[in-house]
Design a protein that fits this description.
By secondary structure, the protein is an alpha/beta fold. β2 and β3 form a beta hairpin. The chain contains 8 helices and 11 strands. The strands form 3 sheets. Strands 5-4-1-9-10-11 form a 6-stranded parallel β-sheet, sandwiched between helices. The chain is globular and about 55 Å long. The two termini are about 15 Å apart. α5 packs parallel to α8. The chain folds into 2 domains: about 140 residues, 3-Layer(aba) Sandwich (Rossmann fold), CATH 3.40.50; about 80 residues, 2-Layer Sandwich (SIR2/SIRT2 'Small Domain'), CATH 3.30.1600.10.
């Protein structure tokens, strides 16, 4: 069974009503990215950061996987599919995808500020975290998110997956955010690379072999037709 590895970005979940991580004006849900997605922002105003992610979780709980998410899950009937996502939502999992690697963390999880391995999963019924809420080690809980300026611990497993792909697919990402954008450099020579995005995306690696200029849902429909041929 051929192995398909898929890299997804914010455009993957946009059709589900979730905001993209960083807009052209540097705002995310009307907040400066520096205030809510950096370690410095956390140390300046942890209460603001916690409230911000509480709001994102409530939005995620009310969102549903779109046809694109479901299309990728359906690929598992004929392929060995692994998804590497830059998104922090859980829509891939809720759509039925079995193998999802989150590069930038997971919105429905929180962890100790001291020990990043002390992770707690939140439920849809209890999804808010406040100052004073503690991890098992007695330290404050923070979002289990990789903020700008922090290391990306899952990049090595992602590189290994990409290096073994028989087919590589990029969906809804600008290829501007590193190290995720650099994953294209690990695709083996001769492997087909599909890029799905309604916007023009610059491929710094030169590895893309087929561009599908559509949104995630329609683009994946077209990809399925191509693969089935």
């Amino acid at each position: 069974m051929k192995k398909i590895v898929v890299l997804t970005g914010a455009g993957m979940s946009a059709e589900s009503g979730l905001s993209t991580f960083r807009s052209s004006n540097g705002l995310w849900e009307n907040h400066r990215v520096e205030d809510v997605a950096t370690p410095e922002g956390w140390y300046r105003n942890p209460e603001l950061v916690l409230d911000f992610y509480n709001g994102l979780r409530r939005a995620l709980i009310n969102a549903e996987p779109n046809a694109g998410h479901k299309g990728l899950a359906a690929l598992e009937s004929n392929y060995d599919v692994y998804i590497i996502t830059q998104n922090v939502d859980n829509l891939h999992e809720r759509a039925g995808s079995s193998h999802v690697l989150h590069l930038h963390g997971e919105l429905m999880k929180v962890r100790s500020v001291r020990n990043e391995k002390l992770i707690r999963e939140l439920s849809s019924e209890e999804c808010d975290i406040h100052l004073g809420d503690k991890a098992e080690d007695g330290e404050q809980l923070r979002p289990h998110i990789v903020w700008f300026g922090e290391a990306v611990p899952m990049i090595e497993p992602a590189i290994e997956l990409v290096s073994k792909a028989d087919i590589f697919v990029v969906i809804g990402t600008s290829l501007n955010v590193y190290p995720a954008a650099g994953l294209l450099n690990y695709v083996r020579p001769g492997i087909p690379v599909y890029l799905i995005d309604p916007n023009e995306v610059y491929d710094p690696s030169g590895r893309v072999t087929c561009v599908i200029r559509k949104g995630a849902s329609e683009g994946i429909k077209e990809l399925l037709k191509i693969l089935h041929k």
